[in-house]
Amino acid sequence: MSGANASLGAAMAEPMDPARPAPSFDDVRSRSLLRPAILLLLNDQEGHGYELMGRLAELGAEVPPTTGALYRSLRVMADEGLVRSYWNTSERGPARRVYAITPLGEQRLEQLMSGLSNLLRTVQHIVDRYRNRAELFPPHEETPHDVLARRHDSRGRRSERGTVAL
User: Fold this and answer.
1) CA torsion, points 17, 21, 25, 28, in degrees to nearest 10?
2) Which pTM value belongs to this model?
3) 16 vs 67, which has greater pLDDT?
4) Which end of the chain is more exposed for a tag (fewer CB within 10 A), N or C?
């Protein structure tokens, strides 16, 4: 599974702990899209953390990352050789760490975009199938749900060959 798909799949496949609420799809999506979004922005133009936060918001993220999540991702990507950083002391005010994409980061961005394109096609297929479900199961045909419902009595007990087991 590619990076974006693996992140999404791993987060969605975690065992459910009844004491802890399941992660929302928005949480999973924002975590799995942060790295490709950062690499995309740095591929367009280098920038410092605060500036990157603003540029991430422009991408239309419904759930913006926390500052901590952004800097953790940048640090990990720097350790992996995907981004590099340097101190910019030429601007007014305090020195700022500026991040730029590396050639390895450009390669990884290409891989991530390929994975996201595949994911997008899959999601579109699922949405299209959902929207077209009336065509898949016209009203005169019995759906799998109807078959299961017919096999159970009103109290949810399984019946054998159409008769309710008492």
Assistant:
1) -70
2) 0.63
3) 67
4) C
